[in-house]
Amino acid sequence: MPVIYMDHSATTPVSERALAAMLPYFREEFGNPSAVYGYGQTAKNTLEKCRERMAKALGAFRSEIYFTSGGTESDNLVIRSIAAMKRDKGRHMITTMIEHNAVRRTFEALEKEGYSVTYLQPDPMGRITPEQLAQAIREDTILISIMMANNVVGTVLPIKELAMTARKRHVLFHTDAVQAVGHIPVNVHELGVDFLSLSAHKFHGPKGVGAVYCRIPNRLLPMQTGGGQEKEVRSGTENIPGIVGMTEALEEAVENLEGSSVYLTGLRDHITRELCAVPGVHRTGDPVNRLPGFCSFIVENIHHSVFLVNALNERGICVSSGSACSASSREASHVLLALGYDQEMSGEALRITLDTENTREEAEYLISSVKECIALVRAREKKKEGTLEGSVRKAAGR
Ligand SMILES: Cc1ncc(COP(=O)(O)O)c(C=O)c1O
């Protein structure tokens, strides 16, 4: 049975172009950039060229790009650096209730260390307004961190306006753009953000590599001690094949952005229309300001989306119930709860995230399979209602 992969927000396969670019750096050009001989200097040149190319693709300067191990590290690096650096100026920070755990859990950890955090409440579509942000800023606010695109409902937030609000009040602004980079236009100088996190595996680069954009020099503190690479910010021998793959993948994504966006928006809207015609299926997130290939729904009366995701898996379709990090957990999504869905509905999310590799035929197969599987899961769940399991669930309020 051929597998149809439609969970590109969780991760993407490395593109052929990125893979071809990476391969020489595993054996022929394997040098350590810190070494003085030829192999080392070649690696150093490659590293700096990648920094330059990454900067160009993001509308940044070369000196503003730092390489990391991915989105989680980039988010931690920014938030923890500013918290430590500015603690004498203030201990208040602002974020939203719909951030990825890489941001959310970092703020929760800092709260335990005595910082105070305001979690902005989104509207039911996942939107946050500049006015809302302005109201939350205090004299002692030292950092604002708001994601560019949400990983559960696909809503794209108005980062330019939010960053402008922060700048007017002289507060540093970070955006977690892990779901956005490579999928929608991202130009850091036009956006006016101070920091931005990205991760290669979300745009057909390899896993375990990412970057931070940092507008102001000396604003990042080392989270680990060691050889002082990345201008003392991030010690550890640089992952040259990974960085080369990420750079190539980003350039490829940016080159193809316009065409892919048109194609994916068409496919997304077709799937959304078809599935929302099924009774009890509702789209989640902003209908207009959303990622091009991002379809997200609540499917009522399936008890938990894990049953639907498993049924689709049996038909060779890979989709998810929410974010990748919560895919195996039965916990309701904190994002959907924040959007106002109740506990039960928040456990009934279905996320289908497309890529240009997904064909029209695959979309048709997906639509018919989702419809059939919803009917199947609902019938199974209804049957369980009269059983012991059903009574236990009812008593437990599940
Ligand atoms: C919005 C967002 N931020 C951060 C991350 C973490 O990135 P990484 O997997 O590179 O650590 C993810 C991954 O799913 C994400 O979706």
Explain what you see.
It is built from 13 helices and twelve strands. The chain has 398 residues and is an alpha/beta fold. It folds into two domains: 4-9 and 257-395, Alpha-Beta Complex (Aspartate Aminotransferase, domain 1); 16-253, Type I PLP-dependent aspartate aminotransferase-like (Major domain) (Aspartate Aminotransferase, domain 2). The strands form three sheets. Strands 2-8-7-6-5-3-4 form a seven-stranded mixed sheet, with helices on both faces. A three-stranded antiparallel sheet has the order 9-10-12. The protein has a two-stranded parallel sheet with strand order 1-11. The chain starts with a strand and ends with a helix. The structure holds pyridoxal-5'-phosphate (PLP).
- Total DSSP helices: 13
Radius of gyration: 22 Å
Integer count of domains: 2
CATH structural class of the largest domain: Alpha Beta
CATH topology of the largest domain: Aspartate Aminotransferase, domain 2
Named once each, the bound ligands are: pyridoxal-5'-phosphate
Strand ordering within the main sheet: 2-8-7-6-5-3-4
Helix content: 40-55%
Sequence of secondary-structure elements: EHHEHEHEHEHEHEEHEEHEHHEHH
CATH homologous group name of the largest domain: Type I PLP-dependent aspartate aminotransferase-like (Major domain)
Shape descriptor: globular
Beta-strand content bin: 5-15%
The total of beta strands comes to: 12
Mean pLDDT over the residues:
95
Question: So, CATH architecture of the largest domain?
Answer: 3-Layer(aba) Sandwich
| Main sheet: strands, sense, barrel | 7 strands, mixed
Amino-to-carboxy terminus distance:
35 Å
Uncertain segments of ≥5 residues (pLDDT<50)? none
